Amino acid sequence: MESRFDGKADRKDINMDLRDFFNKHPRVAVACSGGVDSTFLMVQAKKYAKDVKAYFVQSAFQPGFELEDARKCCEKAGVKLCVIKVDVLGDRRIADNSADRCYYCKKALFEAMIKAAGEDGYTILLEGTNASDDEDDRPGMRALRALGVYFPLRECGMGKAEIRKQAKEEGIFTHAKPAYACLATRIPVGTPITADMLNRVEESERALFAMGFKDFRVRVYHGAARLQICGEEWQIFSEKRREIAKALQPFFSEVFLDILVER
After folding, report:
1. How far apart are CA 184 and CA 137, in angstroms?
2. What is the arrangement of strands in the sheet containing 216-221, beginning at the earlier edge strand?
3. pLDDT at residue 6 in the model
4. What is the pLDDT of residues 119-169, one digit of tens each?
5. Which residues contact 55 (CB under 8 A, 6 or more apart)?
6. Predicted confidence (pLDDT) at residue 7 exceeds the cutoff of 70
């Protein structure tokens, strides 16, 4: 089916708020990744739009907790969630992990959501990019623009701090959730991505979450784990460094600590 998404996305208008946006677009589909931006957007769509449905793409690049968070938020808001599976590793343009990987991945994921939403009768798909996001750091935005995806938070001039504040006031549990880039970003560009590599990263990060870490990354570095943590969590690392090494040993024979983290 030919997409009816019209490509008029990202018209920032600080004189427009979300109520105005949904008055203009009362029937929408929302790409819900499980993060604070997309869940906040989904809740606002439920509040102001006449008809809304959420869509989550499940792939090898998304950790399991993201789907759990998306489901929990949708259930609480009373919004139906459609889960779509996409085989990203089956596309060599993605799995080969070139500098354009994010473009091809976003294109594949959002084409799948647009197709599913179109079959459900929705002609507008919304995504949670906000006014604080630097587009230069998000090459996948080129694909979303070409597909005609809308960015209401950005259009209405809403930045991350304001979104977190309002999300907290409205009781959305993701309000303090750290940004979490997809698992593919843990693999250096040019290194082919495999399911085993992604699984080792996900299991390692799951172990660190269980120890109390919240804002960190486990990156692959020449076959070893390169652990990046933020300054406020150095105390946890200092107290649990032996426990960390033991927890990651089944997945990586060596673990390096990156002390030059700027996030």
Report:
1. 15
2. 216-221, 224-229, 255-258
3. 43
4. 999 999 999 999 988 766 578 889 999 999 999 999 999 999 999 999 999
5. 29, 30, 31, 32, 81, 82, 84, 113, 116, 117, 125
6. no
- Measured CA to CA, the distance from residue 116 to residue 123 in angstroms comes to 10
Compute the Cα dihedral for 184, 188, 192, 198 and give only its sign: negative
Q: How many CA atoms lie within 13 A of 92 on its CB side?
A: 0
pTM of the model: 0.89
* All domains in the chain, ordered by first residue: 18-176 (3.40.50.620), 194-258 (3.30.70)
Which pLDDT score is estimated for 194? 97
**Quick one: pLDDT at residue 38?**
98
Copy the structure tokens of residue 53: 């449905």
Amino acid at 65: F
Q: What is the pLDDT of residue 56?
A: 98
